[in-house]
Amino acid sequence: MQKADKALNATYKKPMAKLDDKIAKEKLKKERRAWISYRDANAEFSADEMRGGTGEGLLYMGTITQMTEQREKELAQYLK
Description:
Elements: H1 2-18, H2 22-47, H3 56-79
Helix pairs in contact: 1-3, 2-3
């Protein structure tokens, strides 16, 4: 998960640096906060499938990592 977070943070900085409009930067920040809330809620829901089991944490972290990697790819596409 940490590797995926680092990659996402590095990629996130690129469109932020390209935007020269303060309003656009604020919208991107707002979107990022909303996306993190969505990612976390989705991971909690996915992990609930194994509630109380030994795989619950693994499923949670796997979902977080997978979604973070996908979001990094989406942001990279935005830069093209």
